[in-house]
Amino acid sequence: MRYLFVTGKLAEPALRAVLADLAPKVGFEHEVAVLNITVAALLTPAWIARHLTISDDVDKVILPGLCAGDLTPLRERTRAVVERGPDDLRDLPHYFGLKRQEDYGRCDLEILAEINFAPRFSWQDLLTQARHYQNQGADVIDLGCDPGARWSGVGDAVRALRQEGFRVSIDSMDPVEIGDAVRSGAELVLSVNASNLEAARDWGVEVVVIPDSPSDLDSLERTAERLQSWGVPFRLDPILEPIGFGFAASLGRYLETRIRHPQAEMLMGVGNLTELTDCDSAGINVLLAGFCQELGIRSVLTTAVANWAATSVRELDLARRLVYHAVRHRVLPKHLEPNLVVLRDPRLRKFGADALADLARRITDRNFRIFAEDGKLHVINRSMHLVGEDPFELFRQMQARERIDPSHAFYLGYEMAKAMTALTLGKNYVQDQALNWGFLTRPETTHPPDLDGRSSDRRVSQAEE
Questions:
Q1: What's the predicted TM-score (pTM) here?
Q2: Are 277 and 97 in contact (CB under 8 A)?
Q3: Residues 396-408 pLDDT 10s
């Protein structure tokens, strides 16, 4: 295959360096077309079609990922395949499949998603919540019962969920509730200790063993021995405790349990950390999933009640694939799962002050270009290059130089707010594109005004040649 990579003058050296290393590894021939523009991100397919010569031996034309617009004008000029590459040229190895191995995405950690206080839900709400968790990646729906009252409808709820195709576990210490649930199709009981041990021999399903009190590991041993003598399958859960209430010691008990039972199935309830810590849950879930993967704990129970932990099921679904790959291939869990990097972007891309100043000299139309880097906002069009930290002050300066109608002001305010968010959090800002929030990113459709009526080439003026 022969590839033609299209770029601008600013990115040419870096692109050539990346391709020199990449091409031999992937096995392709290549050439680089450097168009007469400084910033490649401002290219459009229509403009490229007028200025690019494509030889007949090219099999594929790869444009910068930020090259916005319909590819048809360029595709009509060549037999070669035309497509966009990654937004950042440093991601070309990912684009060609070098960083992620073919088996990335596999996992062996089961996720149980608990519906807290399930008896308080209507049937329709229960079904909606179960479907939500399933769509987020849950394998089993755990029905959390109310410790203060016995749920007379637990059997009906389990039966109904099973008829909808869900795997169901029951979270209760009440033998009566548990009995109704397992007779209706629940496949796992959370939990069993000395208080309900005798009833467990008759349920006929797998159970989760917990200690009588979190620090009493010997009680977990005694309960497990009795269940084993009866032939009842079980998973061991030494109980994760919150920070300040024995968190470190509880991790030690998981390690000790694995030493005592090298082959036993184990479960960890992660909610005691994610729900009870003032911290976004994604990082905590990754760390706990990594702990489980290394220790051979093959199931986790999560809740999603606190707003900062509301996406825990999805986070664990992504995390279990990341840690499986890292442990299996003995590689760092880095540059593998960008969807888990939510608050800040993995890398910041910068045009630099010189490139932006050069762009400002070349622009000849009234359309505003907004950039955000190094703690500053840049606003550029044919009559101005403003730089500052306060969007309100910048807007006053813009109004002093240009007449801005209300719809355009609304658009500029929206983009300025995004740019300030990017500066605040250390994210990349690209005008007319959604900020990258990992798996939380919401697709964005913007309607940028075109003051000069050249919508197809709004990002590139003829004077930039």
A1: 0.80
A2: no
A3: 999 999 999 999 9
